[in-house]
Design brief:
Rossmann fold; 7 helices; elongated
Length: 247
């Protein structure tokens, strides 16, 4: 373990909350940043920075002022901008950047996936469908507002403003995990003919993918953006076996 270990955790995922608990168990100074993306985050231990680093002059200044020597990036797999920024800052300061990246979902033989590289292409792929289950979070739904005359079922954790052209919207405000039977009933009752999802990985929201498979509903699946170079872990246990974190 590094002498006088001080850790900055970039969280915002279920795994981030688990890593937060493990850091608390280590008994070392640590801070957890949420960057203000989640309005009602899960309970976290230690000192939490709910609005990121603006009040400290930025992430780089915070790291220097607080003697941080390890940064753990457990942000969402699609939060590529913050990940690249964190990796660059760690490189500038000569400190460890450790990225936790949960495994992406893998297409099974029974799946009908339309794989696209980014959300604009996902919106274009929706032109062939009428009743769309939009389940990509609240940050980027604007990419779908130009679609005309569609019916959207939009699920997010927090409220979202979404105004498609001459379309209709039903809102569901829920946080996973979701169950397969419930997701199958949701798709059936709302007569969904396509699901739009990011390939976020993890089990909390995977039931929608299983439900689409069981019902033969196609999924427009948005590929993950490329992450920064660095040490990447898909297991929390492997992450905490890194020499920088071993007690």
């Amino acid at each position: 373990m590094k002498q006088d270990l001080s850790v900055l955790l970039l969280a915002g995922t279920n795994e981030g909350a688990q890593i937060n608990e493990r850091l608390d168990d280590l008994g070392v100074p640590f801070w957890t940043s949420l960057a203000g993306r989640t309005l009602n985050p899960s309970r976290l231990l230690g000192e939490v920075l709910p609005h990121g680093f603006d009040e400290f002059g930025g992430m780089s200044d915070f790291i220097q002022a607080h003697g941080v020597n390890v940064v753990i990036d457990a942000t969402h797999p699609f939060a590529a901008q913050i990940s690249h920024k964190a990796a660059e800052i760690c490189n500038q300061h000569g400190i460890d950047y450790l990225r936790f990246d949960r495994p992406a979902w893998r297409k099974q033989s029974e799946d009908n996936w339309i794989e696209v590289p980014y959300l604009k292409r996902a919106a274009e792929a929706c032109e062939n469908y009428q009743r769309i289950f939009l389940t990509i979070g609240r940050q980027e739904v604007g990419a779908f507002e130009a679609l005309e005359g569609k019916h959207f079922l939009l699920r997010s954790i927090e409220p979202v403003s979404f105004q498609p052209v001459r379309g209709t919207v039903e809102y569901i405000q829920e946080r996973g995990p979701f169950l397969l039977d419930d997701e199958m009933a949701l798709l059936t009752n709302h007569e969904i003919d396509v699901v739009v999802s990011k390939n976020s990985g993890g089990m909390a929201t995977y039931a929608k993918i299983g439900a689409a498979r069981e019902l033969g509903v196609p999924v427009i699946m948005v590929d993950r953006p490329a992450g920064p170079d660095g040490q990447v872990f898909s297991s929390i246990e492997d992450l905490f076996n890194h020499p920088s974190l071993c007690v």
